[in-house]
User: What shape does this take?
Amino acid sequence: MLKKILILRLSAIGDTIHTLPLINAIKAQYPDCKIGWVVEDKAALFIQGHKNVDNCYIIPKKLWKQRGFCIENIKEFFNIINAINKEQYDIVIDTQQLFKSAILLPFLDIKRKISLSGGREFSQFFSNEIIKAQHELFNPNYHVVKRNLELAKYLGVKTDKIEFNLTDATSDAKNKVKKLLSALDCTKKTVVISPATTWENKHWSEDCWKQVIDYLNGRVNIVFTGTNQDTDLINRLSSHVKNPIILTGSTNLEELAEVFRNADIVISPDSGSAHIAWAVEKPFVITIFTATAALRNAPFGDNCACFYPDIDCYPCMKRKCKLKKDKNLCCYSVPAQKVIEKIKNILS
Assistant: This one.
């Protein structure tokens, strides 16, 4: 019988979402099991208030970085540690398996400290129960969701279902999104385009985006989402679109998820947006992969499709392209026509 489990998964929206099926599987089989989760502020929205997370411990990484090394940060760190230890968890699972998560383990008064083999940055030295993983931590051909579910299997939990169970948007968020999308033509389907991401070589070429957008123009409602930093890119892509709805910098993550719930299709590169769209379990999600590994990270299932390059160096998994010739070749190597054909099939 599983009683109290703590999850360590600190950073990245996509990685956090990829860990949700683990806790949902545990709760499905052991509904009385109490689950805590240590998460960084960036992805906390998807953990705090989740129906299957009883306690959420937020690491305020952004604030701590702004302050720099100081006594106040150290005090707040130990306040979090004390709050965790007060709950008397039986098991802690390090799903991140990097130094940033493993460094918490020595401070936690928890008997079983579990991780999979293959952790990096000396993280394995901090666990006392290491499970032999089926594949390496960053194996490009093995999905991270399946890797996380190996931890559930080890604990005797069934893993036949992959569920996210994101918390529904608040009434305020729903009302705001309703206003933002008030210009939608209800006689047409809605396609949300979230074209930007963090790495330069995770971006699909603008020419390819424009070909897809030209096909969609007039056929569907087109909604663009992104941060304020994506304004120039989205302005270029939307310049010839008939009545676009541009939400650049207009939504927080909760509201963005609600925008996706109102869409029929979401198209995105490998980004937090793609994973949020997958997790809301409503739109058809199309992801375009360039430098990163689709088989490891892409949304999958009946309501998803992903496209990736057929080139020798794929997937390099590098933030910066190492090619001296044909720089960022992967960004141009997924033909727009393939994506258009998929869209045609969905809309037909």
